[in-house]
Amino acid sequence: MCRDGTSQRIRWKSEVSETDRKRVYLDYAATTPLDADVLEAMRPYLSDVFGNANSLYREGREAHAALEEARGSLARVLGAKRSNEVIFTSGGTESDNAALLGMAVAGAEGNSRNRVIVSSFEHHAVLECAPTLARLGYRVDRIAPRADGFIHPDDLTAVLDEDVVLVSIMHANNEIGTVQPVAELARRSHEVGALFHTDAVQAFGKVGLDLEESGVDAASFSAHKVYGPKGTGALYLRRRTPFRTQMRGGGQEATRRSGTQNVAGAVGFAKAAEIAAAGREVEMARERTLRDRLVFLLPEVSDRIHLTVDPMDGVEPSQSDLYLPNLVSFCIEGLESETTLLFCDEAGFAVSGGSACASRSLEPSHVLLAIGMDRDLAFGSLRVSLGRATTMEDIDAFAETLSSLLSRPVLS
Ligand code: PLP
Fold first, then answer.
1. Helix axes 263-301, 58-78, angle to 10 degrees
2. 133: phi then psi, degrees, rounded to nearest 5
3. 357 an active-site residue?
4. Closest atom, ligand 1, to C-alpha of 170
5. pLDDT tens across 343-372, in order?
6. How far is the CA of 142 from the centre of ligand 1 (A)?
7. Residues flanking ligand 1, CB < 6 Å
8. pTM, whole model, 2 decimals?
């Protein structure tokens, strides 16, 4: 609408209006739409049941009951032994910050440990904690993944010593989809008495992980990656894990995260997690089939397309959990991500040029550089991530679109 109330018809260059066009969303790793059942579960806590979960009167007790039920349900889905091992936060970023700073500070109390190890292809929510840790007197060392996109446990062992207080290595990488052997990495960290945290934001709902069994001390989660609400997340903190909160105030979440709780968000996250876990095997098998189709089609489209990692190369069905089943990362030689992304957008497809947060950056992705990718090629990176609404037709149409882009005389 224009300011004078008349509607203005916006035209695409190709003379088809944006609204006429079927949009195909292929960026589920950036965020997902809210599940209708999740919205229904949240609705009462956005209206009638509005009490502060810490108030003692009836409205507060109702909100508190819902919050604790959500906590119990999420703990069960995550495989936590006790519900009080789950702390609600505002999302993955806060959980990562809380874990890195809170565990490093508490873990070093009464001893001389002063090193923190993170992988060099972590999300910025982990990497950007380094300057603060350095100011607090910690040395932050980065461990690189190998060219295959995995952190090999022996490479971690090689840099571990008794000075290390905390190791943080993500469960699944958000740009290339490789799934790290976190249980083994946690075990190696514990051998030298270090704590282990994993950013499980992308892996949760796609790859199985029983927190109690895995041995990890802490893990970060985010609701909006699993069809839950934005601005809600959780930090799993195994019982007796040293932790000093960085969020001080009213002492909510058993003094580990002050601030009035987002009851609707917690209820929504628990519901989204329940739905994701219940349907995981069937839906991930479906999305894996679509992913494999795209992986098959891309080299057919053009020999200028290079898969960043090949989730099908030599992978036995029993190893299907080595890669996220819904993500394909590739680079197009001689074509910048932004050009491809905008062309795809105009053709009706939402895809990412790497991760959501890096996509406005002029630098190539730190993840691709970490796995040793050629810098020029890394400028042409694209990430396609599939979800519940993706169909085989969408995949074929997307491949067609890329094909038409790459066969343009000016670009080929
Ligand atoms: N960690 C990873 C691996 C992510 O992919 C993201 C989001 O893209 C985050 C952390 C941040 O999560 P949130 O958006 O909930 O702050």
1. 30
2. -65, -40
3. yes
4. 3
5. 999 999 999 996 544 445 568 999 999 999
6. 19
7. 91-93, 96, 123, 125, 170, 174, 199, 201-202, 222, 224, 233, 356
8. 0.93
